[in-house]
Amino acid sequence: MKTKRVISFFLALVLALISFCSCDPFELLNAYSKAGKLICHYLDVGQGDSIFIELPNKKTMLIDSGENYHGEGIVKYMTREGHSRIDYLIATHPHSDHIGSMAYIVRHFDVSTVCMPKVSTSSRLYEDLLKAIKSKKLKVTSGKAGVNLFTDDEYRLKADIVAPSKLDKENLNNSSLMIRLTYRDSSFLFTGDAEKAELASISEKTDISADVLKVGHHGSSNATTKAFLERVEPKLAVISVGKNNDYGHPHKNVLKLLKNIGSEIHRTDKEGTVRISTDGGGSYTVDTGLNSIERVI
Ligand SMILES: [Zn+2]
Ligand SMILES: [Zn+2]
After folding, report:
1. Is 15 among the domain residues?
2. What is the distance in A from the centroid of ligand 1 to the CA of 173?
3. The domain spanning residue 280 has which CATH number?
4. Which ligand is closest in space to the CA of residue 240?
């Protein structure tokens, strides 16, 4: 009985403190568990890409946005994680499974920097995105190899575009912005849909090593080579791919190459949204089975 009374006293005290501070306990807990971490959410957007990144300096990054019916789900997901703005919005290349929902996202969030490759397409979705960017008076940075997206020395945090060195206007996949993100001793590589030609054109001097690789082009056989994997040496590989897709992605040879190099493979078609977090020390926590974007809608 005595223990019960002590517990009730502490509960009452905690509740009183919370109401006195007028702060949301879940928000507090959320902020506490995320402090000092870089958290990468490979969102389950079916056949497509959308990666939401919470940076340790409290800024956010969104790489791609899936097809056009995922906007509401992505906005809800990010809001639930406690965010209402995107500091760095990246469109790797203007295919619908990467920029489909971006106009919606630009209209519903505060966005600071927009970065995309200098290629265009006549699709309605792309034109709608340009319209949304214009109506918000946002400046677009042209992305290509050698561009530094940001450097934060205080946090030892950095994002560089490592490819493409030249744009391919015929095959937009080969104009995909490839981004290397590092936080202290942890590293991530995001590849868009870059195919063999783009992979092969990356200068030997460019550091593309990364512990965590977003596998290129949804695991297609034209986007992963042994030579490329030997340069990246990923410990973890994430394939963003739709369940029972028409393309046969991911290709069995790609899975084999990843296994041979010793990568632990995660797939959004099997595991839903994949969340990888790190405190920058070179080790990673992988969480799966989270609320998928599809289920949010
Ligand atoms: Zn794609
Ligand atoms: Zn593509």
Report:
1. no
2. 8
3. 3.60.15.10
4. 1
Cα(242) to centroid(ligand 2), Å: 14
Counting ligands in written order, which one lies closest to the CA of residue 123? 2
Q: How many domains does the chain have?
A: 1
- Tokens 């899936």 — which residue? 66
237 C-alpha to center of ligand 2: Å?
A: 19
155 falls within a domain: yes
In a domain, 213, yes or no: yes
**Ligand 1 midpoint to CA 65 (Å):** 11
Buried b (16+ CB within 10 A) or exposed e, 256-285: ebbeebebebbbbbebbbbbbbbbbeeebe
User: pLDDT of 6-63, one tens digit each?
Assistant: 666 666 665 555 555 556 666 767 777 889 999 999 999 999 999 999 999 999 999 9
pLDDT digits (tens, 9 = 90+) for 196-254: 999 999 999 999 999 999 999 999 999 999 999 999 999 999 999 999 999 999 999 99
- State residue 293 phi and psi, 5-degree precision: -60, -40
Both tokens of residue 31? 């902020």
Is residue 25 assigned to a domain? no
Label residue 204 left, alpha or beta by phi (over 0 means left) and psi (-120 to 50 means alpha): alpha
194 CA → ligand 1 middle, Å: 9
Structural domain range at position 292: 38-296
How far is ligand 1, taken at its centre, from the CA of residue 15, in Å?
Answer: 48
